[in-house]
Amino acid sequence: MAEPTSRSRRTRVVRVVVAVVAVAAAALWVTRGWWQVVSVSLTEVRAVAVMETLVTSGRVVWRTTHQVAPEVAGRVVAVHAAEGQRVTQGELLVQLDDEDARLAVRAREAQLGDARARLEAVSRTARPLAIAQLDDARVRLGQAEREEARVAELNRRGLGSGSDADAARDATLVARAAVRRAEATLRASGRAGSDVLSAQAQVEAAEAELARAARALARTRIVAPASGLILSRDVEVDHIVSAGRTLLVLAPDDVVEVRLQPDERELARLRVGQTAWAMTPAVPGVREQLTVDRILPAVDAERGTIDVRLRLTPGSGLLHPNLTIDVEVELGLLPERVIVPAGAFVEDADGVWALRVEGRRARAVALDPVWRGDVGIAVEGGLRDGDVIVGDVAGLRAGQRVRVAAVPAAAGRGEETSP
């Protein structure tokens, strides 16, 4: 019976030893921060003025679109636009059959040529003829007056007859009437004459008819009303289209904008004219500048948001309808604050804190962030310009023993540099 008792006693001793070792190992693990030395690098924090920004997302929208439609009915003979195509103002999009319109233009051009030829004839040939006719009438009048004077002299001498005097007087009256008619004809052939005015009126009427025919021809060419993006197309070659039917929908570049819907609490910080920057994973490598153009006064009662519109530059690489983009709005410069770089602070349930080296151990410094960015945070209180903190706090805890491996050039005097 002695042998089993001795074996049982040895088993209990082994168990006790294993338990003691396990407890000791656990204690060492739990308290490793107090005895284990970790090598750290220090960084000097500086107080600088930082740009406060609002980071949010938005969508590319158009305030309006153009419904491109023909003014006249006709058969489509060519389509030069497709969905997603960029076009410039005045670019031909759709061509209707224009054969009849071209014939009408040629006919009106011929009419105008005839009218101008008549005006030229009236201006250059009618006037010389009228002058010659007036000269001839005046000569005849002179002859008639001399004949009347001769007959009167014969009658005075008693050598003539009364019938000869009457005939001479009538001839003079006829000659004078002929002169008056010639003078009227000459006036009518001048620049303000009735013949010239009539010819000019015919030229103006022909020009108006030609312009009307040219407009009808131009209506067979459906062009882009503005530079922009073709959103949709509903026309093909040989389609018979009616006047006013929408063939294309064009989104003009000059009315494109980015729509943001930030929280209503941002209303006090947003201002028209503020600069913003936009980017999107859908278009890698594109980062474009925007401008806050409008802040709508209404607040969405259900979501508690406001509507902000940003102006996008024409020709931007972000001109895609309903594209989601990330936007950073520059709200303004903050007063100088200490900047704690990313990686040099921890944020947990207890708040935000950094570590500084004091007496060979890492000591926590509570921070009060007033701004957050990609490079780090701006804090108010806890640290001052020129303070030195641990540059990488990953895996470190307050109270842990540390060894300073690197000290900033402008700092470090007085800090512990040996274990």
Essential attributes:
34% helix, 419 residues, alpha+beta
Descriptive report:
This protein has 419 residues and is α+β, with helices and mostly antiparallel strands. 34% of the residues lie in helices and 33% in strands. It has helices spanning 2-30, 32-35, 99-157, 162-188, 194-218; strands at 37-44, 46-48, 51-62, 66-68, 74-79, 86-87, 92-96, 221-223, 228-233, 240-241, 248-252, 256-260, 275-279, 287-300, 305-311, 324-333, 337-341, 346-348, 351-358, 361-367, 369-373, 376-379, 388-390, 401-406. Strands 3-12-15-14-13-16 form a 6-stranded antiparallel beta barrel. It has a 4-stranded antiparallel beta sheet with strand order 2-17-22-21, with no helix packed on it. The longest helix is centred in the N-terminal third of the chain and has 59 residues, at 99-157. The model is unreliable at 409-419 (pLDDT under 50).
Q: Indicate the multimeric state.
A: single chain
Terminus-to-terminus distance = 58 Å
Share of helical residues: 25-40%
Residues in β-strands, percent: 25-35%
Taking all Cα atoms into account, the compactness measure Rg is 51 Å
Helix count from the secondary structure assignment? 5
Number of strands: 24
> What is the typical, i.e. mean, pLDDT?
82
For the sheet with most strands, the description reads: 6 strands, antiparallel, barrel
Unreliable spans: 409-419
Strand order of the largest sheet: 3-12-15-14-13-16
> What structural class is derived from the secondary structure elements?
alpha+beta
Shape type: rod-shaped
Order of helices and strands: HHEEEEEEEHHHEEEEEEEEEEEEEEEEE
